[in-house]
Each structure stands twice: as C-alpha cells, then as structure tokens.
Amino acid sequence: MNLAQVTYIWIDGTVPTKTLRSKVKIVPHTKEHLTVEDIPQWNFDGSSTYQAMGHDSDLTLNAVCVVDDPILGMGNYLALCEVLNPDGTPHMSNTRAKLVEVMEKFGKAHDPWIGFEQEYTLFKGQQPLGWPDRGYPAPQGPFYCGVGADEVFGRHLVEEHAQACLDAGIMLYGTNAEVMPGQWEFQIGYRGVEGESADPLTASDHLWLARWLLYRLGEDYDITATLHPKPVKGDWNGAGKHTNFSTRAMRDPKTGMEAINKAIKLLEARHNDHIKVYGHDLELRLTGKHETANISQFIAGVGNRGASIRIPRPVASKGYGYIEDRRPGANANPYEVATVLVETICGVPVNTKEQCAI
Ligand code: ADP
Ligand code: MN
Ligand code: MN
Ligand code: MN
User: Fold this and answer.
1) Which of 163, 248, 266, 295 has the fewest Cβ atoms within 10 Å of its own Cβ atom?
2) How far is the CA of 174 from the centre of ligand 3 (A)?
3) Which residues contact 126 (CB under 8 A, 6 or more apart)?
4) Which CATH number is 2-93 given?
5) Are residues 220 and 274 in contact, defined by beta-carbon separation less than 8 angstroms?
6) How far is the C-alpha of 267 from the C-alpha of 271, rounded, in Å?
C-alpha cells in the first residue's frame, strides 16, 4: 500500500480577485503513478472561502489536472480541482466549466493554442523586493533582463520556481526579469514540444498550478508574490498577463495572415467584453504609457508594444503564427481570458465553405 500526500488546490470566491486555497489528503493506493481519475473527490468548508453560507457550506473538490509534487517529492501530487455544488453541478465560482463548454463547441474546428506571460512583483514586507526602505530605486532602464546584485532581486526564488514547474511537468516556456526592479515574468503554454497540448484548458490549469508553486516557494524565503496590475503607482511599469493565441488557420502558411487579420477585427468589435474579464484595477495599468494601449482604445500593430494586440515581427515576416493580446492584467483569471478569446475568435459559425477560415 502506498500513501500519497495529495495537495488539493482550488480557486476560491474572493471578490474582486479570486485566490488559491489548498489542503492535503493522504490517498492510499496500490498504483505506480496516480492520474486524475485516481484522485477521489473531497470537500471543504465553502463558508470560509467566500463560496457558501455557514448553514449549507459543504462544497466538492473534483480533480481536473494532476501533476507530480516537486516540493514533497516523488510519490506525492498536486491536484488542481474545480469546485462543484453538492449535486455535482459547477459552483458559480467555477469559471473553468464555462471554458470547457466553449471548447466543446469550438475547440475541434479551430484547435486553439495559448501561451500566457505571467508577470508578477515580489515583495518583502511592504516594499517590492530590492527596493530601499524609504524612497525609490534608480529609474527604470537597467533592470529588464538584467544581471547583478544591484539590478535583479529574487533570482534564487525564480530559478527554484522554474525547476519546480519543470519537475512537476508544467508547460513552462521561460522566465525573465522585468522592467521594474523586483518584477519578473514566467511563461506557460505553447513551447513546441512534440505531443504536448497547449490547448486553452491545459495552459490555464498549468498557469494556476504555477501560480500556486510560486506562492508556496515564496514561503521559504519570506517573500510574497503579488499579481496586482499596478503594484507601485507612478512612473513604474505595471504587471500584465499577455496572452498569445493561435488557431489552426493562423498557424497555416496558406491562411495565416488572413486569419490573423480577421481575428483582430473580431477582437476590436468586442473590446469592452474582453476588458470586463481582464482583471480588477486594469485601468491603473492600461494608461497608454509603460508599453500599454489606453483601456478605452483598441490598437493593433506589428511589433507594437503600445498596442492592444501585437503581431510579433517574426509572425508578420513569415506570414503566419499567432497574436499577442497585451491587455490582460497580471491578476486576470486565465479561464476567463481564454473563454472570451475562444468565443470571440472561434465562435463564428463554421460552415463547409469557410471551414477553419480562422
Ligand atoms: P514577449 O516577446 O511578448 O515578451 P515571450 O517570449 O515572453 O514574448 O513569450 C512568447 C509567448 O508566445 C510564449 O508564452 C509562447 O507560449 C507563446 N507562443 C509562441 N507561439 C505560439 C503559438 N503558435 N500559439 C500560441 N502561443 C504561442
Ligand atoms: Mn514576455
Ligand atoms: Mn513582460
Ligand atoms: Mn509579451
């Protein structure tokens, strides 16, 4: 008999920005390796997570994505869960269920892939990591992708987090130090690995797991990571969650540019519907400065980092590939971002003549 420590991780009902919760269950089993089907459902007290009233508080945890636990080690697991009502229907805080629905409708025809760039800011106490106790560091300039103890802060944690993601089997694409000191980025999703699916559900699940690992490893250093989109007011870059998106037709050299241009038109028409789910306090970040477009404008451009949608230069040169939606804030919920992107770009009726036009 094996005894696995399974950390059940779920998303709570905190308003305006949901946060992660977790608790551990010992799962006895006789298998070599556990998969999602082997993780028994469990429950929790929804009245302590803004998900239920005290008189009827039991909610169900249903595992949807299970990876090796890189911290407790081999034989232990991290189980990302969705929250269900006692009758088995998705709880109202369960934004994953909606993504499942739109993927069932449009996923097959369009085969969307996603890559999220998750920016975040490390804090030690009340100050961003590496900032002086009072006042400010030198103005932005040398910090982005910098090296040296005077330029980047927290690399140890960043490297440990990256290795933990890889050990867990999470689709980590890369990491970099950001423009504001103490700010970093990691990317999750498409990375060109044979046999790996960067579909919106898997990429979003992996992003939530990677966020959990970052917070958890930060505990060991007494460092917190915040996803606030504008952690320091003033002339400092905010933190985003650029979302790179492609469909089968965008990736096809024959239809690529046409599909990309069509997607941009569709995105423009639904700008406000996207902004609504791109994270709380987004207006503090999307000012038109600091590599953003103003929240009230929709701008698309090749290689333009002041745009809402950027077509990466190499994509424009090749004539196919993907687009980058630069609007989501760091605190946006990947399930909601992915849902609205799939709805807008893939939600057009697919008829035989126009099949996979996008
Ligand atoms: P940036 O230049 O904006 O900082 P990064 O190098 O940080 O870009 O990240 C590139 C992102 O593009 C990664 O998240 C990767 O997964 C994503 N990506 C690359 N190709 C595709 C594709 N075909 N479809 C979707 N996402 C893609
Ligand atoms: Mn990036
Ligand atoms: Mn970045
Ligand atoms: Mn980017």
Assistant:
1) 163
2) 11
3) none
4) 3.10.20.70
5) no
6) 6
Query: Ligand 1, closest atom to CA 326?
Result: 3
pLDDT at position 312: 97
- pTM > 0.85: yes or no: yes
Residues of the chain with CATH 3.10.20.70: 2-93
Which band of pLDDT confidence, cut at 50, 70 and 90, is reported for residue 355? very low
Q: Where in the chain is the domain with CATH 3.30.590.10?
A: 101-346
Q: Is the CB of 245 under 6 A from ligand 1?
A: yes
CB 46 less than 6 A from any atom of ligand 1:
no
Tokens of 188: 């999750």
CATH topology of domain 101-346: Creatine Kinase; Chain A, domain 2 (3.30.590)
Using DSSP's 3-state secondary structure scheme, residue 149 falls into coil
Q: What is the pLDDT of residues 58-72, one digit of tens each?
A: 999 999 999 999 999
Q: How confident is the model at residue 300 (pLDDT cuts 50, 70, 90)?
A: very high
Ligand 1 pocket check for 326: Cβ under 6 Å: no
Contact assessment for residue 178 and residue 151, using Cβ atoms and an 8 Å cutoff: no
What is the per-residue DSSP string for 309-354?
EEE-HHHHHHT-S-EEE---BTT--HHHHHHHHHHHHH-S---STT
Residue nearest to atom 24 of ligand 1 (CA): 246
173 pocket-lining for ligand 1 (C-beta < 6 Å): yes
pLDDT digits (tens, 9 = 90+) for 126-174: 999 999 988 899 998 899 999 999 999 999 999 999 999 999 999 999 9
